Amino acid sequence: MKRVTLTLAFALLIAPMLAQADAPPLSPMPSDAEMPFVRKATTDLQKLYPTAKDAEAAGYQRYTNEDKTGAISYADGNWTSSDADHPSQLWYDAGGRLLGADYSVPLSAAPPVLFGIDPARWITFHAHVHYGLVGPGGTTIYGGTGGAHFTSAGGSISAPTADQLVAANVAKSASDVRFVFPFPAIWDLEIWILPNPNGAFAESNPNVHPVVPPKSGMGM
């Protein structure tokens, strides 16, 4: 899981699961069958969304801090990816350079058979909520929530609101909430677009250097 750096409780809530937990791990290098999709995604996304500003102009919204791999994630709210040109998420470094992408489809019983990608590469995410709060000096505090605490306070995982974040003691007031959106249960495929000597499906990329060194433990 490259993109999302979370508190431990939240990480356990939405932690991705391998599509085939008992299968031998796949090589992070694309297979011959997977290479056409990887090549097309790499070529097309570098033209369509080379910078974070291009992603924002196309409707993608930042929703995370930089994670341990140096990636900052942007989502467009469309969780069904139809082809290589339409990832559900894009990742950029702190300088706005395109790093990678997520492709997703709604969660079903079996992993997707799409794009020539081995089904075992798809992971699952449970439904949860992401939000941005007003931070000091005009900054945004990015976070996520879900589970019993949020729902017991009247929160809706599928249709969260600023008032629900206040009720769950996530935000002090609704005016402090810059955005809130549902992250549905999905099958998800992560791919590096920036050339990666470890492979397009590797956990990290030695060509990316986080601005903030990773800390022990996890936090938004």
Poorly predicted regions are: 216-220
User: What's the number of helices?
Assistant: 5
Largest beta sheet, briefly? 7 strands, antiparallel
Number of domains: 2
- Give the helix level as a range of percent: 10-25%
The radius of gyration is: 17 Å
What is the beta-strand fraction? 15-25%
Describe this structure in words.
It is a single chain. The chain is of the alpha+beta class and 220 residues long. Helices cover 18% and strands 23% of the residues. The longest helix has 14 residues, at 35-48. The chain starts with 7 loop residues before the first helix and ends in a 28-residue tail after the last strand. The model is unreliable at 216-220 (pLDDT under 50).
Q: Characteristics of this structure?
A:
alpha+beta, three-stranded antiparallel sheet, 18% helix, 10 strands, 2 domains, 5 helices, disordered C terminus, globular, 220 residues
Itemize the secondary structure elements and their pairings:
Blueprint: H1 8-14, E1 17-18, H2 35-48, H3 52-57, E2 61-62, E3 72-75, E4 89-92, E5 98-106, E6 123-125, E7 128-134, E8 140-145, H4 147-152, H5 162-167, E9 177-183, E10 186-192
Q: What's the short story on this structure?
A:
Helices cover 18% and strands 23% of the residues. The protein is an alpha+beta fold. The C terminus is likely disordered.
